[in-house]
Amino acid sequence: LGRIMRPDDANVAGNVHGGTILKMIEEAGAIISTRHCNSQGGEPCVAALARVERTDFLSPVCIGEVANVSAEITYTSRHSVEVQVNVMSENILTGAKKVTNKATLWYVPLSLKNVNKVLEVPPIQYARKEQEDEGKKRYEEQKLDRLETKQRNGDLIFPVINPEPHTVGYSQSSLIHLVGPSDCTLLGFVHGGVTMKLMDEVAGIVAARHCKTNIVTASVDAINFHEKIKKGSVITISGRMTFTSNKSMEIEVFVDADPFVDESRERYRAVSAFFTYVSLSKEGKPLPVPQLLTETEDEKRRFEEGKGRYLQTKAKRQAQMQQAAQQ
């Protein structure tokens, strides 16, 4: 999957919008998953996005470059598919190429006849037994994390009157979107990539309000898709700052759906995630991030939880660098 990046794909810093890349990643994952799940005949289905693991933005994609997205199925359970996706940018004037993004996504096959029916996934053949064992371990870890995330998903964001700069209330933001036909799959539910792009836009607004500088997406920490969003629903995408280090910001984003076409259904939490942003100067150099001022006990608790995630990610990255150096 590939296309040239146009001016309307740009963010305010002049590079390709992180949400655009996330949308392309999801499209590639959906294509390969749907193709695999229909490879052995049986009941026709469409692969629906259930979760996006941590996604790192290794390098920006520039306007005029070609973004090439490649996807590979790395594990299958009875009812889910794990897909590894890489994004490579290519300067078509010089031929220079670089890897810009790596992501892991999980899909489930939904029947075209009954969207509430999850079908079985054809198994893949592994080159080594260790690959299957490692995949199963990743599957169990993401399954547990999805359960924990769903249990803490009752939070709401309320407006704050005259908030002080650099507080949670000062930068928190919301966006309201009516789900139309162009946002949806064949089954009439929102594309995961559309949702991710909207979430990235809200997270970017929160980060920009906090810093008052250019900002870019650095990573996305596990987007969980808890429930499907139907065509005709009104969705509210809300974001708030949870943690700041010296050079990065963590923003919690969640999506609530109001299914107006189904009056029997109340508003519900559909998606949740944490985005990490960095502040940049006009020359594209990293800038220090203003410290987040926490006021309530909940804000202090979320700050400490964010700090834990930050330190865990930092330790994991250092371990990977040491392992690479030894090889």
TrEMBL record:
Main location group: cytoplasm
Active site: 11, 200
The organism of origin for this protein: Bucorvus abyssinicus
Region (Disordered) residue spans: 296-327
Protein name, as recorded: palmitoyl-CoA hydrolase
Cellular component GO terms held in the UniProt record: cytosol
A biological process from GO: fatty acid catabolic process
Gene3D superfamilies reported in the protein's UniProt record: Hotdog Thioesterase
Gene (name only): Acot7
SUPFAM superfamilies per UniProt: Thioesterase/thiol ester dehydrase-isomerase
Keyword annotations of the record: Cytoplasm, Hydrolase, Lipid metabolism, Repeat, Serine esterase
